[in-house]
Specification:
- This protein is an alpha+beta fold.
- The chain folds into two domains: about 100 residues, Arc Repressor Mutant, subunit A; about 50 residues, Herpes Virus-1, CATH 3.30.40.10.
- Strands 1-3-2 form a three-stranded antiparallel sheet. A two-stranded antiparallel sheet has the order 4-5. Strands 6-7 form a two-stranded antiparallel ribbon.
- The longest helix has 16 residues.
- It is elongated and about 55 Å long.
- The chain starts with 6 loop residues before the first helix and ends in a 20-residue tail after the last helix.
- Pfam families: SMC_Nse1, zf-RING-like.
- Keywords: Chromosome, DNA damage, DNA recombination, DNA repair, Metal-binding, Nucleus, Telomere, Transferase, Ubl conjugation pathway, Zinc, Zinc-finger.
- Component of the Smc5-Smc6 complex.
- Belongs to the NSE1 family.
Length: about 150
């Protein structure tokens, strides 16, 4: 998904301007959420708030299906999250535009959207990395500051 907003890049995209705006707003919802998911209801409610051109909810549903088919979003039980393709291809965009909330995993150093965060030092770790890292430990401690890891280990 091309999120640059120049006249030339708008022509190079597979999506219309209002579809891209819906995608950007969906990314905002997902990345700024506590668990890395956004409900379909919340995303569909964005359709009437688009600045470019309002979108009907039915049309927004179709656009979301296309984003899932194109592997930009993943959907499960009415909840959407960023697909692996989106995270890989848009990592630099996400890190630069969501500096306050986007983190790299302290273990694998990839972008961590769904992660746990150390309450003491603020490092983040993917849930699978948390599971692997703390598997053999009886008392889990943060790999950065060695404080007790207070999050539930999946």
């Amino acid at each position: 998904v091309n999120l640059a907003e120049t006249e030339i890049t708008k022509m190079a995209s597979d999506y219309t301007e209002n579809e891209l705006e819906l995608f950007r707003k969906t990314m905002d919802l997902i990345i700024l959420s506590e668990n890395g998911f956004a409900s379909s209801t919340d995303i569909l409610n964005l359709a009437d708030q688009l600045k470019t051109k309002k979108m009907k909810k039915k049309e927004a549903e179709q656009v979301l299906k296309v984003f899932v088919e194109d592997k930009w979003l993943s959907e499960r039980n009415g909840e959407y999250t960023l697909h692996t393709r989106c995270i890989i291809e848009m990592e630099q965009y996400i890190l630069s535009n969501y500096q306050d909330v986007a983190r790299k995993c302290n273990i694998c150093h990839s972008l961590a959207i769904q992660s746990q965060v150390c309450e003491s030092c603020g490092i983040g770790m993917h849930l699978p990395c948390v599971r692997k890292y703390f598997r053999a430990q009886t008392e889990p401690r943060c790999p950065q500051c060695s404080d007790f890891w207070s999050c539930d280990i999946p």
